[in-house]
Specification:
heterodimer, A: about 90 residues, mainly alpha, 2 helices, about 0% strand, B: about 220 residues, globular
Chain lengths: ~90, ~220
């Protein structure tokens, strides 16, 4: 067989084999995308990224921001009410 | 509503005090471990964001067609809550992703659509603040676009290839996780409803104050 013909046969075999091998190995699926699998204790030995700090920041931020927002709305409401009372008093005097 | 407000606020505060205990009692997820605990508040905040976006969108639709002031007040309150709660969703998500995926952010359909929705409601608030007289109607149209984004954000994980957990995670939660999750959802939806009511009241009082100033000038 001539070298060119041999090369052609190799290329055809490779192209034909590629989809077959792709079918045999399903693409890896990221873990915990469809359902969460429970365990009794986390496997957190030798953690490169400490989960505790991330969870702490997440929960802390939620509490601080929501409490801050409640305080902000209440103080804005109180300011408007004070202004209304002052205006009412001023117009009553006139 | 006025009579119910304080007891509901106390109930929400009690729920938020108890929620961490339920979350700590819930089992760990096998691949993500401790960081998956962010899910309980993160997903609940996502639902609260949808509620606030619907409040703003529905208020805007009613205002566009009937010009009722209460509808405009509701639209402003909903938009502000969408911005606040959306910010928390967009910050807690990357904190979870950093550990679970190894990166803070990916331009994934769920993350990108949530960011776009959040920016639309921020555009609404900017328009209301700096748009000048008559900007309410233009802003109302913006809020309608924002509300129209909600189904895209929700179904994006099922329609497109994504790293984000799918909506199927919620119905398949094991009992220990399910109880804690729905408890947090109820707490956040109740808190968001109360905050929308408070913020709507503030907008109503502001309008009354403006009317008082006008009357005093005359």
């Amino acid at each position: 067989m001539k070298p060119i013909a041999r090369l052609l046969v190799i290329v055809i075999v490779l192209f034909a084999a590629a989809p077959l091998s792709a079918q045999q190995q399903p693409p890896p699926k990221p873990a915990a995308q469809d359902a969460f699998v429970p365990v009794d204790a986390p496997n957190n030995q030798q953690e490169a990224i400490p989960a505790q700090r991330l969870v702490g920041i997440a929960y802390g931020l939620i509490w601080v921001l929501l409490l801050g927002y409640v305080w902000s709305v209440r103080s804005r409401l109180a300011r408007v009410e004070r202004e209304m009372e002052a205006l009412n008093r001023r117009t009553a005097r006139q | 509503m006025q009579k119910l407000f304080t007891p509901l606020l106390i109930l929400v505060a009690a729920m938020f005090a108890y929620a961490p205990m339920m979350i700590l009692d819930a089992p760990y997820e096998s691949t993500m471990g401790l960081v998956q605990k962010i899910f309980y508040f993160h997903a609940s905040l996502g639902m609260a964001m949808f509620l606030a976006a619907f409040a703003s969108g529905i208020g805007s639709a009613v205002f566009l067609f009937s010009r009722r002031p209460w509808a405009d007040h509701l639209a402003v309150a909903g938009a502000e809550l969408t911005s606040i709660v959306g910010f928390l969703v967009l910050v807690t998500g990357p904190l979870w992703a950093r550990k679970a995926w190894g990166v803070w952010w990916v331009w994934d359909p769920r993350l990108t659509s949530t960011l776009v929705m959040w920016m639309i409601f921020n555009a609404y608030l900017l328009l209301r603040r700096y748009g000048g007289p008559g900007s309410e109607r233009l802003a109302a149209a913006v809020a309608l676009f924002g509300m129209a984004n909600v189904p895209f954000v929700y179904w994006s994980v099922n329609v497109w290839r994504t790293l984000h957990p799918k909506t199927s995670v919620i119905p398949t939660l094991v009992p220990g996780m399910r109880g804690a999750f729905w408890f947090c959802v109820v707490a956040f939806l109740l808190l968001t409803s109360l905050l929308i009511a408070m913020r709507t009241e503030l907008e109503k009082r502001r309008q009354q104050l403006d009317e008082l100033y006008l009357a005093a000038e005359e």
